[in-house]
Amino acid sequence: MKFFKKLSLFTVASALLLSSAIAGTAGAKDDLKGKITVNGSTALLPLTLQAAKEFQKLHPKVKIAASGKGSVTGPQAVKKGIADIGACDWDASIDVPGFKAFDGQVANKVAVIPFATIVNKSVKVDNLTTEQLKGIYSGKITNWKDVGGEDEDIVVITRSFGSGTRVNYQAKALGGGDIVKKEKNYKEVGSSGDMKTAVATTPNSIGYIDLTYISGSDFKAVKHDGVAATTENVINGKYKIWSYGYYMTKGEPTGATKAFIEYVQSKKFQESSLKKLKFIPISAMK
Amino acid sequence: MKNSKMLGMALATAVLASATAVGTAGAAVNTKAGNAGAKSTVAQIKTSNVKLTVDGSPVSVKTVTAEKTMLYSLRDLANALGADIKLSGGNLIIQDALQLYELSLKVGSKDYRVNGETVQFGTAPQQIGGTVYVELSPVIEALGGEILSAKGELSSVGRLSGQFDLPFFDAAGNVIAAKEDGEVPQLIKLDSAGRYEVFSSNQNAAGAVVSPDGSQAAFTDENGGLYLLNTVSGLVKQLGKDTSVKTDLSWSQDGKSLYFIQGDKQEKIAYISVDTGKVTELLADKVENKSGVRVTEDGKKAIYFVQVTGKAETDKEGTEESLKIDYSKAGTQVFSLDLATKDSKPVQLTSDAYNKLYLSVLADGRAIYVSADPDGVIPNSVLKVISADGKNVADLTGDLDVVSAVVSGGKLIVLAALENGSKVYEVASSGVKTELYSTDKDVTELTVSKTGTIALIAEGKVVLVQGGKGTELTK
């Protein structure tokens, strides 16, 4: 009988499998209640909202309200007591270039976020080196012909100060180089969505964004130092422009907040929904 | 002590009480165990017949009682399980029908071996009147079977253990569920007797959404690809070439289209033709964070959730002091879209602050969802119904603490939580409910086949409900 045919294989497979608890399995009479507020990284917002939908199926009486305004506003909101979770693209419990540590906050790793350099579809360049990017963002290189493209002015689009994407891009794509504000051919945007729109609609523009947002045909990701921005290249160590995404909390999380963070960190969420939103599971980097 | 062994002891007691004495072997039986070699002396042996059920079929098994333990005819058990008995070097070698398990035992010896590993009986096998008698539970387990109940129900194949979720039925009525406690999730197919196979090890397929006829299930991967899993063959084929982010897959009633939420910000509603793979955009209104799209049977109306986010603001310098967040409008709301009218605009159907889950449409065009009050003022999670014209929202079942609701084959099936356990109801359009199943277990998920059969996930186990009775297909 067909049902039996694969039994022996499965028996062996089962013996090899590690057992682990399923996070977030609710009892029928679920007692978990409360409200969780999340603010910060716009890059992490889709992940938070997807996790919220799934978590609420397990715990229907927990309300999760989320907002996005850039990474630094995550730990700031936690510090001010106006959010339970601060979504941030860097570990805000320690000093990073440009930002002091938020004392007393705990960084809970929830995702790996790859970032990519993107250009408008009009741009013919498909690879940029760290030195070329440094030149472009410092204002020393202003024409695409200087990096192998057409004779067109480069329009630099960057995220506003306080963006986690900007912090990571400066540190890893620009090798710590500056982003210098310019009088013309320069624009700052406040969110990942705005970045996508700006690069997609501005001829000869360059920007940067997390991989989650890369879709459509109005812009394209370019290689960095000859390496494509793919999850595979992040995991195999070839592509360097990525960071962990964190949920910052005031001290160790408790109650519904703790349960929600554990759900986001669970294998069930990490290996399924998180990957389908084009993030990388934190376990992939170990 | 293992549960199965405890069950085996209970079973021995139960069948002992109901056994019919069929003979007396004699005052003092001194038997040579043939080529098996061992001697056994048993006084005042009475043999009896007990009725067991193996894989649903009744069988009669001879028994004796030795050392206050009921022993069962090895030959009868082997016949019932389809196992083969051979004699080898003084040992009896029993192999199950699939030759996956080998049991080696010796009359008079407590030691026995299962696939080469030595274990011990509580009471050594006895040979009486030419028949070898053995303990029930160790032998059933050693041959890969399982004692299902103290009423003498046995399965020739042990049920799969583990933690399961996301169940659905295939077209033949088998349950397919995701086994989540392994290194990677696997889809397991279970028949009504609990026999199983690993159906798919494609971890993206966990959570696949089955078509109305059960013939295929749709899922996406991390590259935005959309795939169809044939629920009979297990073969997977990609549907179309679109690689945008897709979530919340939902089949049309005729199985010809798959609706989904599209875009990295979940801002669009689209569908794909199952025949051609062509993607058609239905709505791109720049409202982000849509989910749960459902389309009425006639294809004329879509309903969906929107997760409204809070609004964070700072001054131009982005100072910490200026940071303010307004969460007053954050939450999930229901919207509808008229698909029959070109360029129609979405209509917001709800505006309250309650959590909203499990959006579905009824055959008459009304929408239902589960509403939960996070403040706990309304203690129960309530099933709400939105009128077909979208103008009225009312409670359909205010007296149930609803866990989830499923619409299948025109029927509304509701899972409700109790203080200790769960109940499943069919709820009529009037709100009148009929209890279909009750359990003291915590049920977290429910699925309904095209013929109306229900499968549940109760405390991580897959349970098949037939005629109001639940059978655990996994352990």
TrEMBL record, chain A:
Q: What is its main location?
A: membrane
What CDD domains does the annotation carry?
A: PBP2_phosphate_like_1 (cd13653)
Q: Where in the cell is it found?
A: Cell membrane
Q: Which Gene3D superfamilies match?
A: Periplasmic binding protein-like II
Instruction: Mention one GO molecular function.
Output: phosphate ion binding
What cellular-component terms does GO give this entry? plasma membrane
Coiled-coil spans in chain: none
Signal peptide start and end residues: 1-28
Q: Which domain of life is it from?
A: Bacteria
- Subunit structure of this entry? The complex is composed of two ATP-binding proteins (PstB), two transmembrane proteins (PstC and PstA) and a solute-binding protein (PstS).
User: Its biological function?
Assistant: Part of the ABC transporter complex PstSACB involved in phosphate import. Involved in the system for phosphate transport across the cytoplasmic membrane.
- Report the protein name in the record: Phosphate-binding protein
UniProtKB/TrEMBL annotation, chain B:
A Pfam family annotated for this UniProt entry: Cu_amine_oxidN1
The superkingdom of the source organism is Bacteria
Keywords, comma-separated and alphabetical? Signal
Keyword Lipid biosynthesis tagged: no
Q: Which InterPro entries match?
A: 6-blade_b-propeller_TolB-like, Cu_amine_oxidase-like_N, Mao_N_sf
Give the PANTHER family listed for this entry.
Answer: PROTEIN TOLB, PROTEIN TOLB HOMOLOG
This one is known as TolB protein
Q: From which residue to which does the signal peptide run?
A: 1-27
The UniProt record lists the Copper amine oxidase-like N-terminal domain at 54-147
